Amino acid sequence: MTAHREGPVLAARGLSRSFQGIQAVGDMSLSLGRGELLGLIGPNGAGKTTMFNMLAGSLAPDSGRIEVMGQDVTGEGAERRLSRGLGRTFQIPRPFPQMTVLENVLCGAQDQSGEKVMSAFFRPAQSRKDEARATEKARHLIDFLLLSHLIEQPASVLSGGQRKLLELARILMADPKVVLLDEPAAGVNPTLLEQIMERVVELNARGVSILLIEHNMEMITRLCSRVVVMALGRELAQGAPADVIRDPAVVRAYLGDAA
Amino acid sequence: MIEILSYGAFFLTMALTYAVIALGLNLQWGQTGLFNVGIAGFVAVGAYVSAILTTPFSDGRLGGFDLPIVVGWIGGGLGAGFLCLLLGALTLRLRSDYLAIATFGAAVVIQLALLNLEALTGGPFGISFIPRPFADLSDRANLFAFANLAVMVVLVLACYAALQHLVRSPWGRVLRALREDETAARALGKNPVSYRLQAFAIGGCVMGLGGAAQGHFIGFIAPENYLPTLTFQVWAMLIIGGSGNMRGAVLGAVLVWAIWALSGSVVSSVFPADQQARAASLQIVLIGVSLCAVLLLRPRGILGEAGTLRRQPKATSTPSEGQNTHD
């Protein structure tokens, strides 16, 4: 386990994926260092979401290898990622609409004995203890993510931006070491966006490594020290945001040859 | 007067055996969304396993282990649950409509197997002399009826309490999460196939227990008791009572069984003997009509989904100040 202490917390090597013969991602590699806040950008259709889904386990790569905390997770399904220490949010948030905010967040808890049918039945004391501890933690996270006033409301009443905060709270229940954020700024009003960015920075300061897919260049420039640019399923450039956005190849990819 | 009470006790006892089966279906469908159209098969397995375990030794067939009734009921529940586990492991990856076809097929196969495995099941003649609870009271009809009713009340309460506890536990919350958004639940580390399989097996176990109890109150079982009509009846019970609600499942079972039993006695008193077999279809028609009426008047059933949708969003609630303009 000490071997990966200094190594990347998330590493992808040579990932490829095609859909009906059309290659969405080809031979893409990426590495997220411990405590890093890495941006992944690219024009529409660059393959960012495909890349993201492969990293999150919801899409199997055709070839290549994915490692989380130094462990090969290439063949594992999405439901194994969080216990490996990798949590993700969705581009269009997916709260459980009929559950309350608190219940939503409680669903993120891992290794809850009450979630095992035998323990729920035969070890009620242990289940209650786990549940109480999880509830306590969930309340803190809901507070951290500015949703305390909505804690007993069903998630269906939340605005788009609040749903993004809720998703973040849900995965933070599992104390992930790596968080993949899929366009947290998309469709969020400026006030709430400021607050989301603050929270992302604070999480990162606590040692959580973050991979951020984003269109909002201002957000990328402010948050990320390094950014990877994808175009046509491959890596086009990487480096500091300020350098990358001046890179002629990047400008061409975004604006076409006219630029 | 005492005869009416005694008949009432007999009626309720039968209705409550269906209530147990409907409770099992509620876990599968109401809580998990598993479309099981093979209820009759799982009920039959419960009834036959229990009958084989508890009947006295008989020359014509294998089995007849003469074990206590409690052992039979536990065996019946476990047998049906195990069958669900096997069938579920093969089919739960299927989409819901295919699961329906698979369970329906399984029920038909089970019924045909019961009909033809004469050495084990007695074939078309079924199994008789299934011991009844409190058989030593049987010469005092009223006491016997009420003692049996008491057994069933206890069984229903136990199943209700156990299932309600499960549904309200974190385990039940995972089932709800999977039902509301499977992709999101997977991203939170919940394995959909595993949870569905557990719910399917536990529901099947409860169904088998209901089937076992039923067999012991009638005292005689045969393959023709386990035709798709039984599946239809139990579905009608759950939908009329309120899918997703454990109390609804019990209420629906009593109501539908009342419709079935009353219409049955009306049919047998109104129609001449040679027409009764045909007139009996009116019972199914009547259940169908009640089903339509309930679906029109209360689409979620009489008791709705109160147990699951605990907090409905209020139209007037203000989610937050200033931030909720949908961006």
From TrEMBL, chain A:
Entry GO MF terms: ATP binding; ATP hydrolysis activity
InterPro entries assigned: AAA+_ATPase (IPR003593), ABC_AA/LPS_Transport (IPR051120), ABC_transporter-like_ATP-bd (IPR003439), ABC_transporter-like_CS (IPR017871), BCA_ABC_TP_C (IPR032823), P-loop_NTPase (IPR027417)
Domain ABC transporter: 10-257
Keyword Transport in annotation: yes
Taxonomy, superkingdom: Bacteria
UniProt keyword terms in alphabetical order: ATP-binding, Nucleotide-binding, Transport
GO annotation, cellular component aspect: plasma membrane
PROSITE patterns to which the protein is assigned, alphabetical: ABC_TRANSPORTER_1 (PS00211), ABC_TRANSPORTER_2 (PS50893)
The name this protein goes by in its record: ABC transporter domain-containing protein
TrEMBL record, chain B:
Organism ancestry: Bacteria, Pseudomonadati, Pseudomonadota, Alphaproteobacteria, Rhodobacterales
Keywords: Cell membrane, Membrane, Transmembrane, Transmembrane helix
GO molecular function list: branched-chain amino acid transmembrane transporter activity
Pfam families documented for this protein: BPD_transp_2 (PF02653)
GO CC terms, sorted: plasma membrane
Subcellular location, record wording: Cell membrane
UniProt-recorded name of the protein: ABC transporter permease
Membrane topology, as annotated: Multi-pass membrane protein
Region (Disordered): 308-327
Stretches that traverse the bilayer: 6-27, 34-57, 69-92, 99-121, 141-163, 199-220, 226-242, 249-271, 277-297
Residue ranges with Polar residues bias: 314-327
Keyword Nucleotide-binding applies: no
Species per Swiss-Prot/TrEMBL record: Puniceibacterium antarcticum
Main location: membrane
InterPro entries: ABC_transp_permease, LivM-like
